[in-house]
Design goal:
Chain lengths: 272, 231, 234
């Protein structure tokens, strides 16, 4: 195969993705829904241990439910924190189920589904830490996952703190574990997911820095697809699969032991 | 937005910060990489076969592994192996920068030692024989006759390494060192507009490489001239 | 280390495939091999305008190649991934993006190696071939290139070992090649992270070291023939 044929093949794929009247029709015609997920973002998207390598996680469940509702096969593509919105606008993925927080800035680039998960930026410290409250963080070294809500809010709120950004949450937590930083800020679920790998060694400081909702990212002006995605999300709530998935990945049986403080409905509004 | 408007705002400030880190990291790693390269080369001149082989294998091993893997190892792995005292000392400092600098210096050192070694090899054996027959000891021969020539021959490849190292420092963004490309990506994250930040970073690298290329050309021109004068 | 291999060998080898796009060591090898195969002809092609008789063509080619070589590979990757779609309306998945960038980047270096290899041959060779009635293209094809290629083999081989290592940058755009796969695993096995990194380093060593040895052997064999001085690359 020459470079040219590869280029041409790629170009055809991309044109097929871009020249659409209605994305939902195209997805139905192709029989495949391409979801962007992180490669390793416990418990939203990860490979289940061992050589089975089954992709699982809350966002994977969301992707599967949407594909099932549309009646097509789900297909996973990996995105990074920085690439998930460009990947969507460039047509590499159909929808982003990638723990994407709904923000006004992002809403200028892409459309969002109804909110499907409530979270917020919190701060984790080692149990031995002298830091006991959110107002003691100025002047410290704080690790954050890049391209997330935490990286923006921490730099804004703690002007004398050193914010150290990492390409993914796992590396961020590793920096905290190694003692390279004194605290880690991130979405509550992200922090709990990472902390579950080291039970009993870290805790969250009381309170939230932000009140956020996650939404499915969609290309702009695709009302039919957006409606289908919203129906699928409401369907997850109605048939109990949203609760089941929450319990499986965040609930009492998991090291995270989170309680579900929300339901998926059409009235949830992300704070401006 | 034009490039000028873009650069005069707060994004220009971010990029300038990034450039400072890139230049600092490049400077530190070039100097340290050179020292490591010279040391490795000297050890590889050892009379003991086993030492030469061991260091040779070490250099090859370093060169066989991607810089990104070096950086990841020195950042996420190596500090674990330190005793508590030095580790806490390290963590109280800019550990991202320090670990990136160590990784890039060692990687560059291995390549520089290869350059120096081929510089050494290109000096005809007759030089050593002539120098020894003039009454120089073998150490003196090395110090006063061989080494200066080897360095001179190695200058163009070393300037090439300076270019390579400057470009390689961009990999440090993967462990959160806020260098030039890191800042460009950060601006992309804020504005979703990658063109201006990437174009600015690209122009900076072009400028740095232009300067180094001109320096390299100027050097080979004077080197040719001085060799001509000696002959 | 043995435990990691027993438990996760398939994940390290192919990532989440077939549930996700191909990843792991297999992606690294696929990228490296197709990169090697494509970069050679592209490098030769890029060398043609460098040897053009028209000065503006030469100058433009030099400028483009200087540009490619002056900018970090990581930045090239980001350009192709994030800006090419907007500019051309064409977007490539992460692995194809890596391949395109690797081929153009290494092609630029190879074109310089080719030109240096040709320049290192004595002019008499061309003159002799021309006087025997060979045309310009024939001279290049049958007389100059075969000799030049032999001389530049060591440099080519070391360029190729660089290409293998450069595939690691796929991690920056979500191509889960070996480095990203091992990194993900290390993150999920906090106690065994160092073992995972060591395995990763060993894997690259196994891929690159044979090329390093080959390059050295070729260089030793060819030392008596014309020497080619080149900018080092790493």
């Amino acid at each position: 195969m020459t470079l040219r044929t590869i280029l041409l093949a790629g170009a055809c794929l991309a044109v097929a993705g871009a020249a659409q009247a209605d994305q939902l029709d195209d997805i139905r015609a192709a029989g495949v829904l391409v979801c962007g997920v992180p490669s390793n973002y416990v418990p939203f998207s990860f490979l289940e241990n061992g050589n089975e390598r089954t992709p699982v996680g809350f966002d994977v469940d969301v992707c599967n439910a949407i594909a099932a509702h549309i009646g097509v096969t789900p297909e996973l593509r990996y995105v990074t924190g920085a690439s998930r919105i460009p990947d969507l606008t460039a047509g590499r993925i159909d929808i982003a189920t990638a723990a994407l927080t709904i923000t006004p800035e992002r809403a200028q680039q892409v459309d969002f589904s109804i909110p499907y998960f409530r979270t917020g930026v919190r701060v984790a410290v080692p149990n031995s830490s002298e830091i006991t409250a959110l107002d003691q963080l100025d002047g410290r070294r704080i690790a954050v996952p890049e391209s997330g809500m935490a990286s923006m809010i921490v730099a804004e709120r703690y002007r004398d703190a050193t914010t150290v950004g990492f390409p993914n949450p796992a590396n961020t937590f590793l920096a905290l574990q190694r003692g390279m930083v004194q605290a880690m800020a991130g979405d509550e679920s992200t922090l709990l997911g990472q902390m579950s790998g080291a039970p009993g060694e870290y805790h969250l400081l009381d309170g939230f820095l932000t009140d956020d909702w996650l939404g499915v990212g969609l290309r702009k002006d695709e009302p039919a697809l957006r409606a289908a995605v919203n129906e699928a999300l409401l369907g997850m709530e109605a048939d109990g699969s949203a609760v089941a998935s929450f319990d499986r990945f965040f609930g009492a049986a998991t090291p995270m032991q989170m309680e579900r403080s929300f339901t998926i409905n059409t009235d949830n509004q992300p704070a401006e | 937005m034009t490039l000028i408007e873009f650069l005069s705002g707060r994004y220009g400030e971010l990029l300038l910060k990034g450039l400072t880190v890139t230049l600092q990291l490049s400077g530190v790693t070039l100097a340290a990489g050179f020292v490591i390269g010279v040391l490795l080369t000297l050890i590889r001149l050892s009379p003991f076969w086993i030492v030469r082989q061991a260091v040779g294998l070490l250099v090859d091993a370093i060169r066989s592994v991607p810089l990104l893997v070096h950086v990841i190892f020195w950042y996420f792995g190596a500090p674990e192996l330190l005793p508590d005292g030095p580790r806490m000392w390290l963590y109280a400092r800019d550990v991202n920068f320090i670990c990136a600098a160590i990784a890039i210096s060692i990687y560059a050192g291995a390549f520089i030692s290869e350059d120096l070694r081929s510089g050494l090899r290109s000096i005809p054996k007759g030089q050593t024989e002539a120098s020894l027959s003039l009454g120089f000891s073998s150490l003196e021969t090395f110090r006063y006759v061989i080494l200066p020539q080897a360095f001179r021959i190695s200058v163009p490849p070393l300037l090439g390494q300076a270019m390579t190292i400057t470009k390689n420092t961009s990999i440090a963004l993967m462990i959160g060192v806020p260098e030039l490309v890191y800042q460009a990506q950060r601006i992309q994250d804020i504005t979703y507009e990658p063109f201006l930040p990437y174009a600015s970073a690209t122009l900076v690298y072009l400028a740095i490489c232009t300067v180094l290329t001109l320096a390299s050309r100027a050097y080979s021109r004077t080197a040719v001239k001085s060799r001509g004068a000696q002959a | 280390m043995i435990e990691i291999l027993q438990e996760y060998w398939l994940q390290l080898l192919i990532g989440g495939f077939p549930h996700t796009p191909l990843g792991g060591l297999a992606l690294t090898v696929v990228l490296a091999v197709s990169g090697l195969v494509l970069a050679m002809p592209v490098g030769l092609l890029m060398a043609v305008p460098l040897r053009s008789r028209l000065k503006p063509v030469r100058a433009l080619a030099e400028l483009i190649i200087f540009y490619i070589r002056s900018v970090p590979l990581l930045l090239h990757v980001l350009w192709v991934y994030f800006l090419l779609p907007a500019a051309l309306g064409v977007s490539f998945p992460p692995a194809i993006t890596m391949l395109i960038t690797l081929v153009l980047f290494n092609g630029a270096y190879i074109s310089k190696i080719v030109v240096a290899g040709i320049d290192a041959l004595p002019r008499g060779q061309t003159e002799a071939a021309m006087s025997l009635g060979f045309g310009r293209v024939q001279t290049m094809r049958f007389v100059i290139l075969p000799q030049a290629l032999r001389n530049m083999l060591p440099s080519l081989v070391s360029q190729l070992s660089l290409l293998i290592k450069e595939t690691a940058l796929g991690a920056a755009i979500g191509a889960t090649e070996a480095t990203q796969t091992f990194l993900d695993l290390a993150n999920n096995l906090p106690g065994q992270a160092i073992q995972a990194y060591a395995l990763l380093a060993l894997a690259y060593f196994a891929l690159c070291y044979p090329l390093l040895l080959l390059g050295r052997r070729l260089e030793r064999r060819g030392r008596r023939t014309a020497k080619i001085a080149l900018e080092p690359a790493s």
